[in-house]
Design brief:
The chain is of the alpha/beta class. Among the domains are: about 30 residues; about 140 residues, Cholesterol Oxidase, domain 2 (2-Layer Sandwich). Strands 10-2-1-13-12-11 form a six-stranded mixed beta sheet. A five-stranded antiparallel beta sheet has the order 7-17-18-19-16. The protein has a four-stranded mixed beta sheet with strand order 4-3-21-20, with no helix packed on it. Helix 2 runs parallel beside helix 9 and helix 13 packs antiparallel against helix 14. The structure holds flavin-adenine dinucleotide. The site of flavin-adenine dinucleotide has 32 residues, from helix 2, strand 11 and helix 10.
């Protein structure tokens, strides 16, 4: 390679060539990040019949497809509205860049005149992944197993398969704990599974001093440090355990679909296929209607249709198929086939309250440091790109110091003083007065953004779906009205 770096003079050519070949090496190294194992394209034809049809290859659908197709005599079809995840889904710190793109369904809440009034339009964005892995390909990767008391309450309500001991058994079956520090702690080692497809590990971030400072601060205010939050039933503070492996995201699509997609003959995975309706014969499910490559196809199911389209799209599909509250369906001119009043109700989500703290100690990661960190990621998958965009630390706590069940969760985002892009992006979602106040303060100081998650909060979902959702691959203009 000939290099004409005009700033270098005199030169024999050896120095600029050395640097240019290093730059070229790193430029091509990004191609090694992209996952090459995504399932191949598959054909779909009208009136085909399968034993099981699964709608949605997200977190749940990917696992179901794998486990059902273990039975060789069952033919399983997995339908996903999105396609392969982009490279940004694999790089932990770039997850924000997926929001608002074609890999996100881009739902928003409806302005109810009461909540979210500091936000432009009085509504909040509600991201959902639209690709293999679903929201597990866009999420923050924190591996939080859930509190045994939650499962116990489901069990107590008559759901016998949700006893905490049974849940634990299945979690262990799924997991493969890889974090070298946790593996050395017997109690934590025994808590997790070791032979499952889902790798759980610590992030490969390198901001260790900051992480230790944050942990010590949480400890000081009484949110005591523990070895591992899942092992401590989510009371205390610790570094996160996450669905990451070797600096890259693990989703259930990468863990459960990719390893089998090319050789398990009884499983067909069809991307960019948008299910519009469940086909019913009386009260029995017979199949689905799917919009695929510009055509509407009907597919038949011998045994079951499993709707794993996520907490928003699952009730939506049921409603569009005439399964839901009769009054609501009548208002939307949908013929009621099965009157099920609770469809679209009882939605639970965790509400986030961003609290901004302004600290006066300036931190200035300059462009050279940032660039070096990016190269580091290309080199060994470490550095800021390998960490999540929150600072790797979580605290779960309750107002009652003796509590064994948390009321709140806190995760900590730190936007550094000269990270103007992130601060502007964060501030731009608010109405002008709030936006200006954030921008003004962050010009002088650097910005901590604490997000407190009310783990116990619940809400209800009142659906106001637009009915015709035929455009596969597009983003249907669906809105939901959420009150918390
Ligand atoms: C930004 C964000 C951050 C999060 N952070 C965390 C975290 O750190 N830790 C954690 O545990 N959880 C987190 N979550 C929540 C977690 O990701 C979800 O609870 C989980 O992924 C839901 O799984 P699911 O299978 O129910 O739905 P999804 O994973 O959303 O899968 C649904 C799939 O169905 C497809 N689909 C929908 N409609 C149709 C249709 N009509 N036809 C065909 N396909 C369809 C979708 O495209 C999608 O692929 C986060 C979620 C988001 C959005």
């Amino acid at each position: 390679m000939v290099c004409n770096a005009s700033c270098i003079h005199p030169t024999t050519g050896a120095a600029p060539n050395t640097f240019m070949s290093a730059i070229q090496f790193f430029a091509t190294a990004q191609c090694l990040i992209q996952n090459k194992d995504w399932p191949p394209e598959a054909e779909l034809h009208d009136l085909e019949e399968y034993d099981f049809i699964i709608v949605g290859a997200g977190t749940a659908g990917s696992i179901l497809a794998n486990r059902l197709s273990e039975i060789k005599t069952w033919n399983v079809l997995l339908l996903e509205a999105g396609g392969n995840p982009p490279i940004e889904s694999e790089i932990p710190n770039l997850l924000r860049s997926l929001l608002g793109t074609k890999f996100d369904w881009q739902y928003t809440t409806v302005n109810n005149g009461l909540t979210n009034q500091a936000y432009k339009g009085g509504n909040v964005k509600w991201p959902r992944g639209k690709m293999l892995g679903g929201s597990g390909s866009i999420n923050v990767m924190a591996y939080v197993q859930g509190h045994p008391l939650d499962y116990q309450s489901w069990f107590n309500e008559g759901n016998t398969e949700w006893h905490p001991d049974i849940v634990k058994q299945y979690l262990k079956k799924a997991e493969s704990l890889q974090d070298p520090i946790r593996l050395k702690i017997p109690k934590v080692y025994n808590h997790y599974g070791h032979n499952g497809p889902l790798v759980v590990n610590a992030f490969n971030g390198t901001d260790e001093c900051l992480v230790l400072d944050l942990l010590s601060a949480l400890n000081e205010i009484g949110i005591k440090n523990v070895d591992d939050l899942n092992t401590a039933d989510n009371v205390g503070s610790s570094k996160f355990i996450a669905t990451v492996n070797e600096g890259k995201r693990v989703s259930t699509a990468t863990a459960y679909l990719n390893p089998i997609a090319r050789h398990r003959k009884n499983l067909k995975i069809v991307k960019n296929s948008f299910v519009t309706k469940i086909v019913l014969d009386g009260r029995s499910v017979r199949g689905v209607e799917v919009f695929y490559r510009g055509k509407m196809l009907t597919l038949k199911a011998k045994h079951e249709v499993i709707i794993s389209a996520g907490s928003i799209d699952t009730p939506q599909l049921l409603l569009l198929s005439g399964i839901g509250p009769e009054k609501h369906l009548t208002e939307k001119n949908i013929k009621t086939v099965i009157n099920l009043p609770m469809v679209g109700q009882n939605l639970h989500d965790h509400t986030q309250v961003p609290i901004l703290l302004f600290a006066d100690k300036p931190v200035k990661p300059d462009q050279a440091t940032k660039s070096f960190e990016s190269l580091r990621y290309l080199y060994d998958r470490q550095g800021y790109l390998a960490s999540a965009n929150y600072h790797d630390v979580a605290g779960f706590y309750s107002k009652d110091p003796k509590a064994t069940y948390p009321d709140f969760q806190t995760i900590i985002f730190i936007n550094k003083k000269n990270d103007e892009e992130t601060i502007k992006q964060f501030a731009s979602r608010f109405v002008k007065t709030v936006e200006n106040s954030i921008l003004k303060q962050s010009n002088q100081k650097f910005l901590f953004d604490f997000i407190i998650v009310g783990a116990g909060s619940a809400g209800s979902q009142i659906v106001d779906w637009n009915v015709l959702l035929l455009e596969a691959g597009g983003n249907p203009p669906v809105e939901s009205d959420v009150s918390s």
